[in-house]
Amino acid sequence: MFLDPDKRVDLSTAAGMVADGDVVALGGGLSARLPMALIREMIRQGRRNLHVVGSAHSLDVDMLVAAGAITVCEESYVGFEQDFGLAPAYRRAAESGTIQVKESCCVTILTQLRAAEMGVPFLPVRGIKGTDMRRLHPEYAEMTCPFTGEVLVVVPPLRPDVALLHAPLGDTRGNLYMEQPYVLDEHFASAARSVVATVDKIVATEELVERGITIPAHLVRGVAEVPFGAHPASSYPHYAYDRSATGAYIRAAGTQESLESYLDEWVRSTDEAGYRDRQGSAELERLTTWSESVDAWKGLFA
Question: Do residue 259 and residue 127 come from a single domain?
Answer without folding.
Answer: no
